[in-house]
Design a protein that fits this description.
It comes from Moheibacter sediminis. This is DUF2200 domain-containing protein. By secondary structure, the chain is mainly α. It contains 7 helices and 2 strands; from the N terminus they run αααααββαα. The longest helix has 17 residues.
């Protein structure tokens, strides 16, 4: 499968959709940001910098301070694929984020989403 189009998607273009998805289900941008911070190691200032620079997903994840060591606890199906079976490292990271946003929108508690 050619994933180059996904690699080059601009994070800042997708981020508002994540916010909308969360807010439609009564969740907040702060909760979404907390998930992104947990997954990537960004903080509010460094996340905003990535958004302002309009980086693509490949850059967003390659420049992430540190992927959370508990990402292997993120399992299940997202977009028709079982996360733990995805071989492409970047696509796997993107799907981790998608899965966490999906869990937020489905009303899971933050403790469960962050695998605490």
């Amino acid at each position: 499968m050619d994933n180059s189009r996904v690699y080059k998607m601009i994070f800042a273009g997708v981020y508002p959709h994540y916010i909308t998805k969360a807010e439609k289900k009564g969740r907040t941008k702060s909760e979404l940001d907390e998930i992104i911070f947990w997954l990537t190691g960004y903080d509010s200032k460094s996340l905003q910098k990535q958004i302002d620079k309009k980086v693509d997903f490949e850059t967003f994840f390659s420049e992430a301070p540190q992927l959370n060591p508990n990402v292997s606890k993120i399992t299940g199906v997202i977009c028709g694929y079982r996360v733990e079976e995805i071989n492409d490292p970047l696509i796997k990271k993107i799907r981790y984020l998608d899965k966490l946003v999906d869990e937020l929108a489905k009303g899971k508690t933050m403790d469960k989403i962050l695998r605490i």
